[in-house]
Amino acid sequence: MIVDIASHILPPGHFQRLLDTAGSGFYLEKRIRSIPELWDLEARFRVMELFGDLDYRQVLSVANPPIESFCMNGESAVICRALNDELRLLVDDYPARFVSALGYVPVDDQEAAVEELDHLVELGLPGFEIYTHVAGRPLDHANVLPILEQAFERGLCVFLHPARGPERSDYPSEPRSEYELWQILGWPYDTTVAMVRLVLSGVFDRHPDAVVIAHH
User: Fold this and answer.
1) pLDDT band at residue 54 using 50, 70 and 90 as cut-offs
2) N or C: which end of the chain has fewer CB within 10 A?
3) Regarding predicted confidence, which is higher, 197 or 72?
4) Each residue of 204-214: pLDDT tens digit?
5) Are 63 and 9 in contact, with CB atoms under 8 Å apart?
6) Is residue 11 within 8 Å of 87, Cβ to Cβ?
7) Strand bridging mode 157-161 / 212-214
């Protein structure tokens, strides 16, 4: 069996909630619609069939954008709960396709995030995805780091994803990054900075068994 642990998806229900909340025409919609394998299960399965001889299966994680980037103030908790339940259903409905899934928690709200961590444990999901910053705050910020520590205490892994977009220009004189450098070079850089900040925060000294998957 070949298990792909970095396989993004926008479950159909979550994709519709994203459109309803962020509004049609949001900045990633064109790119997302150009990749039907993200939101169309049949299209996804057709690609997976190309690797049928390998017994290829996936661990699902939600694709961009970060939930906290398009909804906050209590709404993100509702979106996360629905997403996590939908991910669990996908794993249950297609066990020959999906080994498991990584959930998402409302990282803009510590109390709600901890509640959702407990829900992930109840669902039997092994961890959750977080971006390299939370609405501009680093992962070692006083409002964010306690969420990670609560996850580690529950034995949950953290799946780290870069959050840099093309609006982060390469030079102060330019309005946007050019040539996809925001992703090609920016994502490894942001991931490295986030990981080093976590190391220097001492979180791995306090939680030596913590698991962080930095897949970019």
Assistant:
1) confident
2) N
3) 197
4) 999 999 999 99
5) yes
6) yes
7) parallel
